[in-house]
Amino acid sequence: MSRAAIVRPALFNGESEAPTHYSVDYRKEGCHGWTIFFSSGARWTARSSVFALALEALIPMISELETHELVVALNQGNVGMLDIEDLPPRGRTEVLQILADGRHWEAMQAMITGGQEWIDALEKPMAELSALAALAALAMREGSDGSSASEIRP
Question: What is the value of pTM for the model shown?
Answer without folding.
Answer: 0.72
